[in-house]
DNA sequence: TTGACCTAGACAAACGATTGTCTTGTGTTA
DNA sequence: TAACACAAGACAATCGTTTGTCTAGGTCAA
């Protein structure tokens, strides 16, 4: 393994771990640097760097290149990311801010973003904002210290002021699954079509009184899904009265509350489109509580498909959305677009109705 | 705002964003550096650094200190984290590897770790490993490039060889919610007691035939929960025959499969302890499928409480575990312990039975 | 034989912060 | 008034890479 020409090789290159270094708190074993490799190969460190980066301006004999690569292998050298980033002014890191790790919808987005980042040889730093603004402040602060090349903002936190702040600091950002008035950088799903698909499924089954448990008023996705519901209903000649809509949030509790309200109303719907799968869990729960059978008395369909939907009782009919692709596309767009160029993209394709047990034709009785 | 002594103040310090810089791809606006601040305050940059870090070896006139701080504020200076880390050899960043973002149990751990990291003024980089080993390899590679001060390993991926590799590279690691034979660095929950608590609850309700849907054979948590089940049963003088146990995994599908198997057996149990809340979803599902009513014919209790448990039908009785504290404690231990010192900690307290609708006394008929 | 021109690398200046060591001026003491 | 101490900062090396520019030696043609 070790070539005869070795001069300054640290003992660390052996395979057995040298764990008995109680002193130093951080890096126990000193890391291998370019200089170590260069010394061993008998060249300048710039040569090593250029060999590794395939710099076309380097002229090198095949024999020397081999020697360099051999030294790299022997020492198990890997470049220090911090030093490189400092020099190149690229962190090869992207940030992703989400409201909450517990939300499975964002879990899918993270997965997609992570894969895309890995594919670009970058890393992803995901932070949750939660309710408290102080956590958001910490993340934005950290990000302002040169640690990321750009920031993905998923969910309904950030406001215009924060975007301005990011602009001022020269940090490219992109809204994910969300739009904001004067912010022309976003990537979203085709929420309107997703809702429409669900409604047409219900209409196809024979439903006419189709209610909508909508998302939060200020959520952009909620507005688009509501529009999809309305458009599909009208296209079929069905009425969309105000009483057919209950505003809720994207949580099981919110969905349950909204559904209770809906079921208490005079003219009960025979089907309901729930704007989000998490809220639909609450809908199933509230229906069971009220003794309303699903799907016999109430068909339920929700936007977003998740593994969870299949194991609920009854198994939930959903519209599958390309959440992972959304996350992946977000990274790609952020990485490949100039920081001040507008990005306005609807991730296409892959919308599909996943029919399970929660939808059925309405009962014969009108 | 701007003092009269200004000499080299960049125009960038004004409030309106200078967004029209289509040229530069990365950092549109050049970042403020120590030198900028120093020049403005009329001192050396070392002075600025020392003022900001409260270096006790710095002697400075109050008046000068004020001038420095004023310049820092005026320019909205924030230190470059990369440069600092390069110099100090501390990244102020910790890594966390989990199997899958979709798993809500890990979501809680992440939340806890994130809060603890923020409290220490660090950042957390969370990566998922998933099924593919190549993603794990990417993460471990990235981590080896000096980007993190330590690594939290949650879940059942990493093997001994990878730990050795980390040791060799001098990267401190800590197993979270898991132990491994020759790895004396872990922090876990009191799984045995959690399982015992659940079993005693069932026994208190009058159950005697209490089955156990266990976790994977090679999962350390699964073994400890099984031991808790067995110990509590025996303490009450109840039998723990092999047929009362079905091994499964921590997914709804696995839980459903195991439960179907269990329900098909000759002597059906009146209650079941499911090792994990996700698997318990499958249990409920399989019971409903088989026409077995919960809790009338089968009581179900699971380890780990999550918001989800409350909205299932029937609402699931669980044992609440301090998952967030587990994550938080992991960061604290990793940050405050020498890299080669052993860490063997069971996060204490906070175990609590959350009684909901899925448990009840057994039916009168034996 | 003297430029001209390659080839194969060497040199050195960044990137932005931290930190050990010097220097300068002022006051104090002997 | 010479020696000294101290206050208040200045200097400069360093962390590990990247990258623009140089140079020593060789080859080739005129």
TrEMBL record, chains A, B:
A Gene Ontology molecular function term of the record: DNA binding
Entry superkingdom: Bacteria
Keyword DNA-binding included in the entry's annotation: yes
Keywords recorded for this protein, A-Z: DNA-binding, Repressor, Transcription, Transcription regulation
InterPro entries the UniProt entry points to: HTH_LacI, LacI/GalR-like_sensor, Lambda_DNA-bd_dom_sf, Peripla_BP_I
Region of interest (Disordered), ranges: 1-26
Pfam families in UniProt: LacI, Peripla_BP_3
Annotated PROSITE patterns: HTH_LACI_2
Segments forming domain HTH lacI-type: 32-88
Protein name: LacI family DNA-binding transcriptional regulator
Organism of derivation: Conexibacter stalactiti
Taxonomic lineage from the root: Bacteria, Bacillati, Actinomycetota, Thermoleophilia, Solirubrobacterales
């Amino acid at each position: 393994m070790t070539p005869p020409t070795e001069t300054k090789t640290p003992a660390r290159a052996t395979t057995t771990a040298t764990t008995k270094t109680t002193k130093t708190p951080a890096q126990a074993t000193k890391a291998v640097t370019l200089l170590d490799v260069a010394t061993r190969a008998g060249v300048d460190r710039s040569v090593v760097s250029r060999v590794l980066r395939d710099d076309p301006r380097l002229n090198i004999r095949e024999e020397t290149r081999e020697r360099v690569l051999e030294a790299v292998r022997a020492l198990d050298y890997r470049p220090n990311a911090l030093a490189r980033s400092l020099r190149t002014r690229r962190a090869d890191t992207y940030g992703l801010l989400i409201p909450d790790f517990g939300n499975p919808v964002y879990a899918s987005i993270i997965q997609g973003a992570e894969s895309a980042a890995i594919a670009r040889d970058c890393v992803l730093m995901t932070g949750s904002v939660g309710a408290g603004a102080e956590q958001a402040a910490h993340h934005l602060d950290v990000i302002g210290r040169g640690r990321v090349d750009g920031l993905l903002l998923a969910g309904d936190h950030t406001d215009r002021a924060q975007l301005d702040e990011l602009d001022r600091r020269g940090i490219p950002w992109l809204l994910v699954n969300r739009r904001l008035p004067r912010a022309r950088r976003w990537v979203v799903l085709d929420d309107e079509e997703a809702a429409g698909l669900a409604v047409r499924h219900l209409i196809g089954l024979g439903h006419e009184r189709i209610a909508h448990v909508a998302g939060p008023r200020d959520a952009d996705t909620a507005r688009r899904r509501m529009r999809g519901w309305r458009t599909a209903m009208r296209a079929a000649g069905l009425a969309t009265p105000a009483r057919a809509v209950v505003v809720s949030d994207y949580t099981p509790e919110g969905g349950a509350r909204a559904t209770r309200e809906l079921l208490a109303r005079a003219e009960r719907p025979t089907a309901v489109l729930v704007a989000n799968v998490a809220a639909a869990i609450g809908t199933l729960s509230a229906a069971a509580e009220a003794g309303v059978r699903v799907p016999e008395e109430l068909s339920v369909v929700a936007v977003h498909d998740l593994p969870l939907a299949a194991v609920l009782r009854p198994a939930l009919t959903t519209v599958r959305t390309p959440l992972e692709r959304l996350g992946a596309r977000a990274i790609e767009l952020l990485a490949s677009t100039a920081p001040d160029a507008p990005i306005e993209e609807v991730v296409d394709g892959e919308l599909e109705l996943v029919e399970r047990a929660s939808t059925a034709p309405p009962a014969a009785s009108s």
